[in-house]
Amino acid sequence: MAASLQRLTSVGRYFLQRHLVKTRYFNGLPVGPRRLLATPAPHQVTLNVPETNVTTLENGLRVASEDSGLTTCTVGLWIDAGSRYENERNNGTAHFLEHMAFKGTRKRSQLDLELEIENMGAHLNAYTSREQTVYYAKAFSKDLPRAVEVLADIIQNSTLGEAEIERERGVILREMQEVETNLQEVVFDHLHATAYQSTALGRTILGPTENIKTINRGDLVEYITTHYKGPRIVLAAAGGVCHQELISLARFHFGKLPSRDQGEVPAPPPCHFTGSEVRSCLCFFGVFCYIFEILMLCSQNNCKSTQRADD
Ligand SMILES: [Zn+2]
Q: Per the record's keyword annotation, is Zinc included, yes or no (predicted)?
């Protein structure tokens, strides 16, 4: 597994993911190849979809699987720890943490990790959305135990080395520049900022530049200890997956994660929909401006003609 390929894929997935407040786009996609066929009858869908098994472990971590008997599988950790769980000061930490996941653990260096995944013929990736941070692997079904062990290692034993943090800080700042040149990205960030004003959902996933420049190891460790708890995590797998085996692996690798009783699991902060509107236009001053309808910073009459031109 080439690190560059991995990061490129991660960024691509991130671009799609961050468009949605909830990750419905990906979570809602049919998983099995049969379900990708166009509009099957309801009874066909029911027949073709493997049963979903869900088990909750003692510490609150949920294990979910669909066994289709394939020779490959996808297994991942879906953690309720996206940017909506951040505050103004630590906004960007969840995404920063996701970047650090592949930079080495107490057991594996970054190179060891990359070689191990590559030699398995597997694929390891991650993304951060407003709602969740997700780490997942695609592998041969026979390698499911190793894939789960690697996932457990990267979220529980990451070294979070100072040198790697500094390197990733530069990577994220460059990623931010890339995002800012993508008008579609900018529009969706403005959409959230306007629809959920003064709430966590209104903030960006990457966080402001000043946060990216100042997030430190302590912030990352605090985010893990606060949010990476059993009730916040789903270990989900599909493909050639035995549910009982997945439960055993989950107990072995994630059984020590804190449960609800061991410290408070913070509830997501309330994010009310403010329902206002932002439009971009070229006003008669000849500069790019925004009309905040609620705040009425710019008269709509002044911008009327150029709004139509924009359309
Ligand atoms: Zn990123």
A: yes
